[in-house]
Amino acid sequence: MVCIYWTYVNIVRGGNRVGIYFSETGASMRPSKVIYDRAYSAIAEADVSDFDFDEIFKDTTWFHFSGITPALSNKAAVLTEEALKAAKRHGVTVSVDLNYRKNLWTPEKAQKVMTNLMQYVDVCIGNEEDAELTLGFKPGNTDVTTGELELEGYKNIFKQMVEKFNFKYVISSLRESYSASDNGWSACIYDGNEFYHSKKYDIRIVDRVGGGYSFASGFIYGLISGKDFKDALEFGVAASALKHTIHGDFNMVSVDEVENLLQGDASGRVQR
Question: Residue 1's pLDDT is what?
């Protein structure tokens, strides 16, 4: 879970261990693989009483959480819901990255937990697999393994999701997996009235871990910095496209670098 404007005093320390994961980077036709070691980690064992959520959220404007957090344990699912309840009490905008992980839970458990949590969400972010396995919505005949995207299918399920959960925005990243090394990357958004598809980038991947988080954070940054939802989406897609070219989980690029890409500078020329 990530809280915008979370201060140092609101970091709770405890538990016996920090969760970790092991990532094997794929290439060409060999896919990347991830092994999680997060059982009995601090966040999986954390209790609601460990946090003063009303204090944490009193000066907060945006709260973002990942579907990975409630997947870690039953306690983590309860903790997530209590955080969301507090966020709504304080009028905080809530966003989620659905982030289904088959190594952490089943679709049946994910749908039971995540469907309940959607009542607190304003901005829903995910991809076609997340929408289907966590919420039960499948976007038409899309097959990302063949690079076939049926945008009308996304538009239809976005409308259904807004009707069911009253989201302000529904967003899906669109990854066309030509291979483990080369992907097409774009996104689409629906605001309850208009459906919009971003520019697509063809990426030669250095490290795709963190690609989704960099997209979500880029979109959120775009909105809170005053961009309209279309420009915010374009910013998130461009920021994440650049992240795919960087080793590690974190996006190390600057706002200026993202803006340069948005303005069409994709040459990759050496900067001296």
Answer: 41
